[in-house]
Amino acid sequence: MIEFQNVCIRAGDFRLQDISFEISSGQYAVLMGRTGRGKTTILESLCGLRSIQSGKIIIRGMDVTSWPPADREIGYVPQDLALFPTFSVCEHLEFALRLRGFHRNQIDRRVNELAEMLGITHLLKRQIEGLSGGESQRVALGRALSFRPSVLLLDEPLSALDSETREEIQNLLRTLTDNTGVTTLHITHNADEASALADRRFHITDGQVVEETGKTAEDS
User: Fold this and answer.
1) 19, 70, 15, 69: which is closest to 46 by C-alpha?
2) Global pTM?
3) Domains in the chain, start-ordered, CATH in brackets?
């Protein structure tokens, strides 16, 4: 479960005021809005990369407002993926598990499980350079999900993909989130993508996060 309670965020001259919304455990929520309205700012605040001025951020019923990012148990895929150029695919899948002190046999089991789930077993020894957009996206998803987070944040994960690959990763996202039960917040500008994936749709309007009901904001 994710909850924002009257959250105020300031970034330079930009400000979001009294943001309140809730996403229930296991739901797939999509957040839409024009460029520059604060979608990424909300994700960064949720995962602890940006401090808030006031209000509370609740995850799984716990107030995590002052918690450091590593303690929030959130998997995050930024828009640029932030893959490490010197790491192999396998090393990306191992990364969060190593940081958390998992035993070698646990890491090996989880990496193999993830690779099979994501269809990248044949890529485990490959370096990041030379991977296709879809392959890179699968690696980033694997790294984010490796430690079984309770929350998954996705910042426009399909925007740089061609239409065929976009549909492929879109189907994978729905399968992964259904199978893992992770609570997901996904940013996109694409209404078709939102319709295909979302259990709930939110939109940033006049500095507020508003849930879409009935007609979408794009239709109004």
Assistant:
1) 69
2) 0.91
3) 2-211 (3.40.50.300)
